[in-house]
Description:
Layout: E1 11-19, H1 28-31, E2 39-46, H2 53-61, E3 71-72, E4 75-76, E5 83-86, H3 89-105, E6 115-118, E7 122-124, H4 132-135, H5 137-146, H6 149-156
Parallel strand pairs: 5-6
Antiparallel strand pairs: 1-2, 1-7, 3-4
Amino acid sequence: MVKPFDQYDGIESVVSGYTGGHVPNPTYKEVCTNTTGHYEAVQITYDPTVFPYEKILQIFWQQIDPTDAGGQFGDRGDSYKTAIFYHDDEQKEIAEQSKRNLEESGKFKASIATEIIQASEFYPAEEYHQDYYKKNATHYELYHVGSGRKGFIDKHWSDHK
Length: 161
């Protein structure tokens, strides 16, 4: 989820990490056991005067299968479920409206499974996870295609930018 946001003016940083769980400072190995309650997530720091929250949500929706309640593409389990983590009432309201708009658009036959959850402690992932798409470009692209993500995005969001 770093690459789609990393290219825009107004996005100051995108940090890979974990949130929503009950174990302080978890490791990737711990999170993958699906016993810590964490989601794999990104924390985006942005300038809302240059890049509004609504645009972040638009890009997010266009990177996922919002109807998949069991993970994403080749990544299965609770830590891979999609969610939007809001930091205040305004973000919550905007996220909920965005989800309603997607649901009502008829773009997907199934219900939108992505949850909207109040943000909790965010723990940055290990260094080797940061900017993974740059550090492991070939593997990243092979997985992007092989997992079905690219095909799904092309099919459902052929107009995405």
